[in-house]
Structures are given as C-alpha cells and as structure tokens.
Design brief:
Distance between the termini of chain B: 37 Å
Structural class of chain A: alpha/beta
Helix content of chain A: 25-40%
Largest interface: A-B, 121 and 135 residues
Radius of gyration of chain B: 35 Å
Shape of chain B: globular
Number of strands of chain B: 24
Shape of chain A: globular
Number of strands of chain A: 17
Distance between the termini of chain A: 55 Å
Strand content of chain A: 15-25%
Number of helices of chain A: 14
Strand order of the largest sheet of chain B: 4-17-9-15-13
Number of helices of chain B: 36
Oligomer: heterodimer
Largest sheet of chain A: 9 strands, mixed
C-alpha cells in the first residue's frame, strides 16, 4: 500500500531526529524537517556543534507582545497596606477590633481572630501623571509610576509561606507542578546558546518554597530554573578544578569529542550527538557566565542608578544581572528576595526592605525602558500573599505592631511587555480586607502573562497522567483591562 | 533551501531520551502502514480522547455517540456520519476538518492531528470495520451495546498462547516469542547478540547498579560453558547490591526522602524503611507480601518490627511544620499524597484526578475517590523505635540487674504483702473529684495549632522551634472551685511517646496562671491566686513551686532521666479562695514555656505535648502521687493482678520506702543509662474512627456527604468478608483478579530495562494511555508474575517446565527478561533498522540508555576504586558544593562531610533534602521526592557536562582513577590506558580511541613537566597522601586523562 506522502515525510523526520518533533511541537510543527532525508545526517549533526542551540526558540500560539520575563519575587509577602493600598478609613478604626462578620470562619496563621485594626504609619501620596498611590516608604518607585500597572486586587488560595509561594509560582498549592518559568521556557525555548534558559537569582534569606519554586514538575528537566549562586561560580561546577586551564579543558574536550563522535558513528545513537553538544555548550558557558557576572564593565552611572556594587551579592546586583541576562537571550529571570515576613514591627521591616530593593527595582524599569527592552519584557513584582489590616502583637512571641498573612487582598505590580502602563487596577474595601472591585486571582495573572507572551493559557499544555496539565490548572481568566 | 537553515537553527544540544519523546500518534500511524487500520488499535483511542466527552455515554450531543458501534453507525440528529467506504464524503470527516461551513470538531478543543484525520479517513475508506463488542469485554446483548467496551486495562489480563515464530532457535525465554513475532510481522530481523564484555556490563548495571570489575569481566569472557550467562545472572541476582539497585527503583515510587519538606524541611529519620526495602528485594519478598506489609504491616496479626517499619511507605508524605499552619489541612494533604502514591505505585491509576470532581476520562466518581481515601483516613502517625540486637541486650541487662535488686528487697521483707496492702490503703485517691474542662479552646504563639482529642486533651502540631505560651479559655458551670489540675499525657505521635515535644519526649513548664470572669461579663477578669502546688514528679533543681512563682526564669522539668521520662505526669494547684460565678465562669489559663539556650535541644524545643485541664471542688486538692499505670493496676482486685502487674506496683512502692534509698539509688543509676535506638516513621490506627466526607470541589473546608471505605466499581470487587481497612485495601490491590497491579509492576520492570514501558505511561493505565506496544506480552508477563509457569533457566536453552517459581517473585520476572534473546541483543542500530522502527518499539535491537543519576556517580566511584560497598544505615553527607545549602529557608542545615568511607557510599544513601536536593543527582534527573515518581525523565544538558567534568566528587574520582591505573595498570602508558579504559567501559579501546587518549596523555605530560604547582593541584586534593613512588607530574597527566575517560558517553551509558 502506498503511504500518503505527508505521513512518509513525518516518519522520516522521526527517523532522523527522534526527539526533535516533540521538542519543537509547540508552534513549530510547521518547520518541516523534510530536509533531513539524506543519509549523512549523523555526520551532519555531529559536525554542527558550533551552530546548535540548547533550547531552540519556539513560536508561541500567536505573536506575543512580550518575549521574556523578569519576575522580582518579594518572598515573605510585603505589606500592601504600607506600600500601595492606602486606607484612610483604617485610621478611623485604628485599634478597634476587626468586625467579626469579616473574619468569621477564617483561620489566621498567627493572630487571634479578634485582633485590632492597624492603620499604616506611612504617608501616602499620588505620583506621576497616572496618580499612582504609594507610601513614602518608596522613594524611587514613584519615579517610574507611569510605567507601572498596579494591581491592588490580587487574591490567592494559600496563607502559609511554602504553599503560598508554590501556588504563586506553579498555580498549585501542592508541590510537583511546573513553575511559571518552566512553562514559559517549555513554550518559548530561549535565545541563548551559552546560558540557561531560566535563571534564578536570590538575595536575603532562603525561600520557604525551596527548589519547588523554580522546579519543572513533570516537565522535562531542561525547563527547570537554574539557581545562580551569590558568591563563587554563578553556576555549580562552572570553574575548572584548580590547575586546569581553559586550554587544557579544550584539549580534553577535543579528545572527548573525537571519542564520542567515533562512538556515534559505530552506534548510530543520536543521543551521543546531543551529549557532544552538551559538552560544547558547557565549555561556552564557562566563558559566558563569568563575563555575564562581571558587573565592573557597567558604567559607573548604571551602577549608581541601581545601587549595585560589583562583587557584592545584593538585590541591586541581581536586578542589574537580570537585565544583563535578558540582554543575552535568557528567557525567564526570577529574583527571590525573601525578607518581607513582618509579623512584628512592620514599619521598620518595610523601611529596611525598601532600602534594600526600592532603588534597584525602579532602576531596572528605567534601564529597560531606556534600552528599549521594556516594551517586550514583562516585569512582575510581588509576594506570595498580602498582610492583614489587623495588628499582630504577642508579647509571648516577642511580637508587636506587625501584620499576619492575608490572602484575601494584596497588591502586585507589573510593567512592560504589553501591560497597560500608568494604571491602577482593582480596589479593596474600606478596611483593605476584601476585594471590592476587579479581583485578579493568581491564575488570572498567570493567564494574562502567558497571553502577552503569545499563549492561550488553556492550550499551553503538557500531557501527564493522562491529563493535559497547564499553568492555570482548570482556572484563569485573561484580564483584559490590564492590557495596553 | 530555507527549511534546511531553520533545521540547523532548531537542533538542540539539549534533548530528552527518545523514549519520552515518542510521538504517540505517529507510532500508531506507523503501525497502520504495516497493516491496515485497526479500529481498536488506531481509531478507538482517537475517538475516546477527543470525542467521547460530548459524544459518549455521559453525553450525546446532537444524539450522536461514537462509543458504540450501533450508535455511531446510526449517526446523530442529521443522520449518518460514517459512510463505510466513502471517507471523503462522510460527514464525520467534514466535521473534523471544519469543511463545508461546519464548525470544526472537536468543538473548543485542539483540532485532530493531520495523521489522525488521515487514519480516520482511511479507516472509513477501508469499510469502517468495527469489531463487535465481545463477551470477553463483558458486553453482550442489546442493552449492553449502549455501553462502550470496557477499557482494556480494567479487564483482567488473559494469558495468550506463545506466538509462533519462524526463527524458533532464536527463542530463549517466552518473552522472545512475543517480541520476535512482532519483529517478524514487520519484516525485520532481530540484532545479533552483544559482545560478552557488553553483556556483563549491561547485566551488572541492570541488576546491581554497579559496573563489573575487570576480574569479573575476564572470568565471564573466559567462561565458555553453555550456561555461563545464566550463571552470571544468578550470581548478580544473589548479590546484596541487587537490593540496592532495585530498592532504589521502588524508592522513586515511594517518594523516599530524609526531610519533611515545605518551608522548614527538617530532617526525619525514616531510613530504616529504606533499608527494609533493600532487604525485601534481596530476599525476594513476594510482591503481594511486599505490598501488604507496606500498606498495612501494622494491621497484621502480631506484627513484627519489620512489618511496622514497612508502613513507612505511606509516611513518606511531606509534612508542613511552618509556623501558623492548620494541622488538619496538611493532614488532609498528606492523605491526598498517599492516595496519589498508591494510585501511581501499585495501580497505574490516576485516582487523584477525581479529588475535585468525577474523573474526566476514567470511570472513577468523585465519591469513589473519597471512598478510597477513607481507607487511609483512620491512622495515627507514630515515630517508632527500631532497636537493634545490641541495644535490646543492654536493656535486658539493665532490667535483669534492677530486678535482681528488687528481688533482694522482696526476699528480705517477709511482711511485704501486709506493708503494701497498708500502703495501698493510704494511697486511695478519688479520681472522681476531677471534672475535665472539655468546653475549651486554645491559642498559642508562633501559630502553633492543636488537635483536640476525644478525652478533652489538646495536642500541638506543626512548628516547634520556639518558646511558647499556651492560652486556654474554658467554660465551667462549677462554683466553689478549689483546684486545677494539668495532666501531661504520653502519646505515640510525640517523640519517644512524649509527653513533651523535646527530642527525648521531655518538656518544661515555666509558669502556670489562671484568671476568671463571669460567663456574662467576659472582660471582667480577675486573677486567681494559687497555692499548694503538688506533682507526681519533682526534680530538686526544678521544683513545682517554680511554676507559680511569677518568675519566668525558673521552671519545672519532666525529665526524670533516660528510663523514666516518657510517662504521664500531672500537677495540681489549689485556689486560695474557692472560685466560680453562679452564672458560669470563664477560665483563662496560661501555661508559659520560656526557654533559654540551656534547655533548647537542637531545632526542637521541649514544649508541652499532649495535656488536659481539670477542675475540682473537693477540699485540699492534691496530685495523685501514683503514676497512671500503677493507679490502673490498683483498680484491679489484688488477687487478679498478673505477676508483671504485681511487680510494677512493687517497683513504684519501693521508691516510697525510705530505708530502701540505697537500693533505689542503685536502680535509678541503672535506669539513667537506659539506651534508645533510632526511630522511624510508621502508621497505627487512630483510636476512634474518623468520618470521611466528600470534599466539595476538593476543598477540605467544604465537607459534603459521608462515605465508607470502598474501591472503584470499575475494577474487581472488594473481597467479601475482607476488613474495610488498609489491610483489606492491600489485599484488594494484590488480589489476583486485580487487572492493574501485576500489569503495572511488570511494565515498570520492563521500563527499567528497556527505557520505555510496554505501556509508555506507567503512571496511567487509564483510558488516555496508549495501547501497549505488545499487549499480549504485557498480559502474559502479568499472569506469569502472579501464577508462574515458566521454569527458571537451567542449562542452556530454557523450556517451559515444572516446577515454577513462587508467585509474585520479581526475580522470576527479571530472569524471564534478562535471559531472553531480546535482552541479549546488540544495541547498535543500523540506519535501516532506525528507519523502519525509529523509536525501537519493536526491540529489534537493544536500547542504548544513559544510566540513572545514582549509577552515574556509582560508576565513577566504582571505576576509581573509591566506592564503599557498605549496605544500609543512616543517610550520608558526601561533599556538596559551597553555598548550595544557603538556598534553604532559615539557618542552613549542618552538612558534615565525613572523611571515612561514608564519603564514597553508593548514591542512594546520600541524605536527600527535599527543598535542596543533592545537586549532582538532581541534575541527572533523580526525582525530588515531593511526590511519587514512576517514570524518570532522561535529559542531556550542559549542566550535566559541568557536573561530571568539575564537581568535586568526580574530580576525586578522576584523581583516584589515575592513581589506581598507576598502581594496577601495568608497565607502559599503553597498558595503563587499556586498563583505565576497561575500568570505565568494560571493554578494550580500539586503535582510534587508544591513539586519541595516548595523544592527550602526551600533551598533558608535556604540559606538566616543569609545572609542579599545577601538577600538585591537579593530581590530588591532598598531595601529602600521594604514595611516594609516583611522579606527581605523571599523576597529574593521568588525572586529566582519567577525567576524559569518566566523561565519555559510553562510561555512563548502558550499551
């Protein structure tokens, strides 16, 4: 029986690059591989090390406005009431017990349900043409107020840190699902051959969610976030052992390559070609990663703008690194700054963390803008949930004037990549307890970010356990009024 | 050609194993080329996945159903949709193509792939043959025709006769009949047998996870006896390392880890479970027993310690100890994880998909999910001790010595019975004076939450890393309250049974206070003055008066020393004035536990564990001085007490006799040395059964209807008369009528050998999975696993004979596979074969597979001679790169790398921290153990290359390999090189390889000559440890070569 031509060519593709079809199946199925029919393909692949790519770029479902993401994760959960969500009414009720009908049936992590209300001690003002409201804890962010899309009506499902962070990053409170960065690199591949596609940077403490925050879940391991280290080699085992020079490394790799190629010829196993490429890419990474990390090449003006100091690990350095990473084609950069869990002395805590992060966050947005990168780069800022309008005080725990975890309403902001700049979306009730207008659930934010990257969030799926999983689980609504 | 350029652009240096990336549709398409389109194989899966949802049993949009022949052929509202023989004209085709102005089907879903559409068209063109539903599927008659045939995996496997093959002399085990028949059907021929050197390495890696030694290779190659291979198989199956290799295979599914997960991710001791698994494999514990002991070892009659340890399978769930968590929420999540793990590990069934709603694809109702969950909802989670023989001996010695002292006292006291009777009379105590305050709520600092037990006691859960103050608010109608009592109670869920939360079960109390308010005026509180504190235990340095002295720096301690601290305690306080309001009283208690560094032990604070509060109106309230256990015995008539009970009473009585103080002190001294063993996490039954309710939309805060334990109706019935508990469930899982378990297990064994299972989705045998690549073989093996018929290999060729192996023997399945001709084939794939069967589903050649993460490391250590062969024991802490642990929440855990052989233990013993998995294993796709994993991904990335090139352990291996080659490798460079190459790959290098490697060696020798500093760095982490008779420059050169050898693709590949 004659095979239909179309099928014949598909089979040929499989013969030649068995992994390829799936790798590129998102949107790239149409890049036909009919060319791979000749017999010398093995030799071709083995010889292609100079031009091969780690995670080939892929086209999304439709042209997206954004091409990459920088996610500034403020772990520990910043107090929206002391930064963005101004509640004059709270002043009036300051110290009074929270109305019981509001908290009925809610289990708080730490406070008693009858805790008193606590008005912010910061002063609020409107900034920019957009009139974005921010507290005076923020000194620099007001300068980019008109570039921000502030969402005051975020809502999430979890009130404990580990599940909260895992939920914000993977769309599930249970461990084991792929993170947003993994989904995005799965969908888009990346533009660099010398660096990982999804890079994780951290400052302050270790995160509650741990490696699950940047995990790949059931997606192939290549989509996992690669944590860069604060000191020493940015990537584990990047440096050659002491005494081994780059030249010696090259010699070793040349021998290795010759032997592996020889074995490829004998066995015909394409996996060896991939292995050869992995070693070559590792070699290039050894050069490109230190160059990337070397902030001394940045102008003093830039360093000053970020408040970055070459060689010193900090949130500011990470913001600058984030820009350098995306400039080099990295698809998804996620910063974790775990320092916002202010159960006690929220004023002091917020001030300190603003000192540590405010300038660099604003600088990153400015810098991206001046380099023309902001328009196709999404910047996300926010924590895993918010904090209560009620005070947390417990002499036994040595806590006073703090705020507990709150999932019913909190603030995040996004910028660039097709988000509508200079708007504030959503409102909370007069006590800042519940959302009064335009709620944006974590799933909705995920859906909207994916949309800007060119994906229908219901169709960016991966089959596991017989089910087509997605970042937004079975939820998620595209929030149109966030879009430019 | 523009397309060609794009191609190069897309080639990824990073790929995933072919196995994972099978394009499923193409596979079935390919099959379709060889034969004609088969409805069952090719069409039904497409309909099932894409159409049944709207055109199936549950819903028949436009009255069209595509799940039964009669209905599909009849068509829908607008008539027939399938016109046999006329693909292009059939309405079904128009709809799936979205032609003729019709909306494309499936509505709202992704369109069918072009090859699927092509298949359907062809099927219709060929006459739309649709076999009748057969009785075998349980479907006959008119009524049943309404239902689609039952999904194959839900029907018990049937043992088919061995297929006839042409090349009969090729067949070694029945596996070969099935595989060869398919190979022949496709017009192919199997590959020749692999070289002996390849075979021994393949077998060793597969059965023990270790590379063979050169001696073993030489012996095998030289062994020309007809059963040399079979003997090798037997030797490896009998190796204690077999249990390590296949134990690790099971630990993936068991999600074994050494920490609790979540934010705090504190260490847990559950390695005795890991060792139990290793031992179970080594003794080939039949899989049905293996299952029953893991799921219900504690429910077996008179369970052994081993059977209790086995229940650790279920305890491998993560545990959230973050401050402020709701313990019930995470208890529920733990159960959800257990359902998931059982579903994956044993059933290959995605039961977990029915947590929020009825399963979308498989016939599992949400109610059935909670019925399944109900089996697991009735447990407590004790941490049991696993004492070894030595420890038990020490304990017996202590007991016999103290009994001897007691016996002396008894002997020299003739009037003992009278004296004890009088004492007993004096010790009368009216327990009825106490009223438990069960109308009470509790609040504690740092988000510690409590379970309230049926007896009115509270037990804290979650965070235990800080001092605390328990605040209890209770209501009582009693007036004239004269005293309060706190009872501290042992509980199996506390460390060493408690009653405290300290690592040894002890606790401290700093301050106890209470105020009262009238029920109708809760704010009008008044402090109640307390006096006359009494207790049943008091240390001179921590007297009970400390807890009402208003001083937060003085405490009471429960710690009575090693042998005595884990028992109930109590304290009683009298009120200075009788208390209580006529309309009822609100009592606000505070039990402060303020600790300093002296009291804190490690991460755990000795906070109070289980406790309850009571009040009395009796005069002069005092704490019962007798321990609860003794008090219980005294309630028994004296004549009816057993010898042991009498002795227990005496053991307490003697402590009250002043003149026996010297003897008492001697016994105390003995008891202070009471030894404790390691512990492990196990299961036991909760005292009172918990009611299981359906959670609406899966939300634990929205309980719905109550359900009883039960199993999904689609599968075989729950055995009548079996208990509706975990034991019954385990029996049901390994019931020979269960269509899933045996298939799922043999499939995973197959997957381990061939990279891909006969069913490609081992975690899902439901209706969304692909048809098995060789369904008859899968079913034959599944039957053979339960009811073996094949005789294990004796001499030469193997024939089916009696007597068969034992039921449920995994080693039996291993023998069937590794002795087969299929397994023994060469792995090289000529282009023709690759083209005919690109994904090697037919297995006309052996697969070539990168080995698992652990084995990569074990090969490096094995080749270099560093590997320790020690089996079992606590997890170890091999070198970990600096800074890695800083990513953890809070203080980085201590990771003290040993200098002894524990530095080089097999990878499966590496301490597994869930939030920071060991980097060099994670990078090679070791599962992170957050949840059950039954299929590892096999990736290929530059980060892996960096690891094997530069990670400290791999460098140490290269250095050790260089030295080893020097010592053992012979005289010249050439001999040494051959030796080194054999250590890494098991074979001799060919001329090209040898030439390349010797070239590199010469380059390095040239480089290092005169560069002593560099030579020092490269040759050893500690040059002082180098033997004196070696030239440092030479060792350095050889280290460079060894590093290349350890990084060759072949070194970490099963050829």
């Amino acid at each position: 029986m004659k095979k239909p031509e179309e099928l014949q060519s598909e089979i040929k593709k499989l013969v030649t690059r068995r992994w390829f079809f799936k790798e590129c199946s998102v949107g790239l199925g149409s890049i036909a591989l009919a060319s791979m029919l000749n017999d010398s393909v093995v030799a071709q692949i083995a010889g292609q090390t100079a031009t091969t790519r780690p995670l080939a770029p892929k086209k999304p479902h439709f042209p997206g406005k954004a091409k990459r993401v920088i996610y500034l994760f403020q772990a520990g959960a910043p107090s929206q009431l002391d930064l963005f969500d101004y509640k004059p009414e709270l002043v009036k009720y300051n110290g009074k017990p929270v109305p019981q009908d509001l908290v009925k049936g809610i289990n708080y992590a730490f406070i008693k349900p009858d805790a008193g209300l606590y008005a912010s001690e910061f002063k609020f003002a409107k900034h920019g043409k957009s009139g974005a409201e921010m507290s005076d804890a923020l000194k620099y962010l007001p300068e980019v107020a008109d570039d921000l899309t502030i969402i005051r009506s975020m809502i999430t499902d979890a009130i404990n840190h580990a599940p909260g962070q895992i939920f914000m990053n993977t769309g599930s409170v249970q461990f084991g699902r792929p993170s947003m960065g993994a989904w995005v690199t799965y969908g888009l591949g990346c533009e660099t051959q010398d660096l990982p596609a999804f890079v994780v940077l951290s400052s302050a403490g270790g995160t509650s969610g741990g490696a699950g925050n940047w995990g790949c879940g059931f997606l192939p391991t290549i989509y996992q976030g690669v944590p860069f280290r604060r000191t020493g080699d940015p990537i584990l085992s990047l440096s050659n052992p002491r005494g081994i020079t780059r030249e010696m490394q090259r010699q070793s790799l040349d021998t290795l390559k010759a032997i592996n190629e020889h074995h490829l010829e004998l066995t015909g196993d394409q996996e060896i070609a991939t292995r050869i490429n992995s070693f070559e890419m590792a070699y290039r990474m050894q050069e490109s990663a230190p160059e990337l990390m070397d902030l001394s090449k940045e102008s003093p003006k830039t360093l000053e703008m970020y408040g970055a100091t070459p060689g010193k690990a900090s949130y500011a350095n990470n913001c600058l690194l984030a820009r350098r990473l995306i400039e080099r084609g990295v698809r998804f950069v996620q910063l974790f700054h775990e320092a916002w869990d202010h159960h006690s002395e929220v004023v002091k805590g917020v001030k300190t963390q603003c000192q540590n992060t405010d300038q660099a966050t604003a600088a990153l947005i400015k810098d991206l803008k001046q380099r023309g990168l902001l328009e196709d780069t999404i910047v996300i800022w926010g924590g895993e949930f918010g904090r209560t309008p009620m005070v947390e005080s417990d002499p036994d725990a040595n806590r006073s004037m703090g705020r507990d975890h709150h999932n019913k309403a909190f603030t995040m902001f996004v910028a660039g990549g097709g988000f509508k700049p200079g708007i504030t979306v959503g409102e909370t009730d007069e006590l800042g307890f519940n959302i009064a207008k335009d709620p944006v659930h974590v799933h909705d934010l995920h859906a909207t970010v994916l949309h800007l990257l060119g994906f229908d969030h219901t169709k960016l799926t991966y089959r596991f356990q017989g089910r087509d999983f997605r970042l937004t689980d079975v939820h998620g609504i595209l929030i149109e009024n966030l879009l430019a | 050609m523009a397309k060609k350029i794009k191609l190069a652009f897309c080639l990824a240096a990073v790929s995933i194993s072919g196995a994972l990336l099978l394009n499923k549709t193409l596979l079935s398409t390919m099959a379709a080329q060889a034969k004609t389109v088969d409805y069952r194989r090719d069409i039904q899966p497409i309909f099932e996945r894409n159409c049944y949802h709207c055109h199936g049993r549950k819903k028949a949009s436009s009255q069209l159903r595509l799940d039964t022949k009669a209905r599909a052929m009849k068509g829908g509202i607008s008539g027939a949709v399938i016109l046999p023989g006329k693909g292009r004209e059939s309405r079904l085709m128009h709809r799936i193509l979205g032609e003729d102005g019709e909306q494309r089907m499936p509505l709202g879903g992704e369109s069918l792939k072009s090859e699927q559409i092509e298949l359907i068209r062809k099927w219709i063109d060929e006459g739309a043959e649709w076999p009748e539903e057969t009785p075998e599927n349980g479907k006959t008659g008119e009524r049943e025709a309404e239902d689609p045939p039952k999904h194959w995996a839900f029907v018990a496997p049937v043992r088919a006769p061995l297929p006839e093959v042409k090349k009969r002399d090729w067949v070694r085990t029945p596996v070969d009949n099935f595989i060869l028949a398919e190979i022949e059907k496709n017009g192919l021929t199997p590959s020749p047998e692999a070289a002996k050197e390849t075979l021994i390495r393949r077998l060793s890696l597969d059965l023990t996870g270790l590379p063979p030694t050169i001696k073993e290779i030489d012996e095998f190659v030289a062994d020309s006896s007809p059963d040399a291979y079979e003997n090798l198989v037997e030797r490896l199956l009998a190796s204690p390392h077999y249990g390590e290799r296949w134990g690790r295979w099971w630990l993936d599914a068991a999600r074994y880890a050494d920490t609790n997960g979540f934010e705090k991710d504190l260490p847990r001791s559950i390695w005795p479970y890991r060792d139990w698994v290793i031992k179970a494999f080594n003794r080939d514990l039949p899989f049905d027993r293996f299952t029953i002991e893991q799921l219900a070892g504690d429910l077996l009659p008179n369970p052994t310690l081993d059977q209790l340890i086995a229940t650790g399978f279920l305890r491998n769930s993560m545990r959230n100890e973050e401050g402020g968590v709701d313990p019930e929420q995470f208890r529920v999540e733990g159960l959800i994880d257990r359902v998931d793990a059982i579903g994956k590990a044993f059933l290959g069934l995605t039961v977990n998909c029915a947590q929020c709603h009825n399963h979308k694809f498989d016939p599992i109702a949400q109610k059935e999910y909670y019925q399944f969950y109900a089996f697991l909802n009735n447990d407590d989670e004790p941490e049991i001790e696993v004492p070894d023989e030595e420890l038990l001996k020490k304990r017996r010695e202590i007991l016999s010595k103290s009994e001897a002292i007691e016996s002396e006292l008894i002997v020299k006291t003739p009037d003992l019975a009278n004296r004890m009777a009088a004492w007993e009379e004096q010790m009368r105590y009216d327990e009825r004076q106490w009223t438990v305050l069960d109308d009470a709520t509790i609040y504690a600092s740092f988000g510690v939450k409590f379970d309230k037990l049926e007896d009115g006691s509270f037990i804290p859960k979650g965070d235990n890393s800080t001092s605390n103050n328990y605040k209890i608010t209770a209501r009582t109608k009693l007036t004239n309250i004269t005293g309060f009592r706190i009872e501290f109670m042992v509980d199996q869920t506390l460390p060493r049974n408690g009653p405290g939360r300290g690592t040894n079960g002890s606790f401290y109390v700093t301050e106890f206070s209470v105020d009262a308010a009238p029920m109708d005026q809760p704010a009008a509180t008044a402090k109640i003055a307390l006096t006359n504190p009494t207790t049943d235990f008091e240390r001179p340095d921590f007297p009970v008066k400390n807890v009402i002295d208003g001083n937060l720096k003085t405490h009471w301690s429960s710690d009575a020393g090693a042998g005595r601290r884990n028992q109930d305690r109590k304290m009683v306080f009298a009120t200075q004035q009788p208390t209580g309001y006529s309309n009822g009283t609100i009592l606000n208690f505070q039990i402060a536990q303020k600790f300093d560094d002296v009291i804190k032990i490690g991460n755990v604070i000795p906070n109070i564990g289980r406790f309850r509060l009571s009040v009395t109106t009796a005069e002069n309230p005092q704490a019962d001085p007798l321990p609860t256990t003794v008090r219980r015995i005294l309630a028994i008539d004296r004549e009816k007490r057993t010898k042991q009970q009498q002795r227990e009473v005496f053991s307490f009585y003697r402590t009250t006799v002043k003149e026996w103080s010297e003897a008492n002190a001697r016994i105390d001294g003995l008891m202070m040395n009471w030894p404790f063993g390691v512990t492990t996490l196990a299961l036991s039954t909760h005292l009172t059964p918990r009611q299981t309710r359906i959670f609406k939309r899966g939300d634990w805060k929205r309980p719905g209807d109550a359900v009883q334990p039960g199993t999904p109706a689609v599968l075989h019935p729950f055995p009548s008369g079996a208990p509706r508990n975990r034991l019954g469930l385990a029996g049901w899982i390994v019931d020979k009528n269960n269509p899933l378990t045996s298939r799922v297990i043999v499939n995973r064994v197959w997957q381990q050998y061939f990279g891909t299972g006969l069913v490609t989705t081992p975690e899902d045998f439901g209706s969304r999975c692909d048809r098995p690549s060789n369904a008859e073989l899968l079913d034959w093996l599944a039957n053979e696993f339960m009811l073996p018929t094949w005789k294990e290999p004796g001499k030469g060729r193997v024939e089916a004979q009696d007597p068969p192996s034992a039921s449920w023997s995994l080693k039996h399945i291993h023998r069937l596979i590794v002795n087969s001709a299929v397994y023994r084939q060469s792995s090289s794939a000529p282009p023709k074969l690759q083209e005919a069967d690109p994904t090697n589903r037919l297995l006309a050649h052996a697969p070539r597979l990168r080995v698992d993460a652990e084995i990569i490391r074990d090969i490096a250590l094995g080749a270099s001679g560093l590997l320790s062969h020690k089996i079992g024991g606590p997890p170890v802490f091999p070198p970990i790169p600096d800074g890695v642990l800083n990513l953890s929440y809070g203080q980085p855990m201590k990771w003290e790398t040993p200098k002894d052989e524990d530095r080089y233990r097999r990878a499966l013993y590496t301490f597994w921290k869930r939030s920071i998995p060991y980097p060099s294993l994670l990078v090679f796709d070791a599962p992170n153990a957050d949840f059950s994993c039954t299929r590892r991904i096999r990736s290929n990335t530059p980060l892996q290359a960096l690891t094997t090139l530069n990670d400290q352990l791999f460098i140490e291996a290269a250095q050790a390999l260089a030295l080893r080659v020097f010592k053992e490798g012979g005289a010249g460079d050439r001999d040494k090189m051959i030796y080194a190459f054999r250590l890494c790959t098991g074979r001799r290098p060919d001329t090209f390889e040898l030439q390349q490697l010797l070239g590199l060696l010469q380059d390095q020798q040239r480089y290092f000559s005169g560069r002593t500093a560099a030579a020092v760095y490269v040759s050893s982490a500690d040059p002082n440890k180098l033997p004196e008779d070696v030239d440092l420059h030479q060792v350095a050169s050889w280290t460079m070569v060894a590093r290349v050898l350890l990084n060759m693709d072949e070194t970490f590949t099963k050829e």
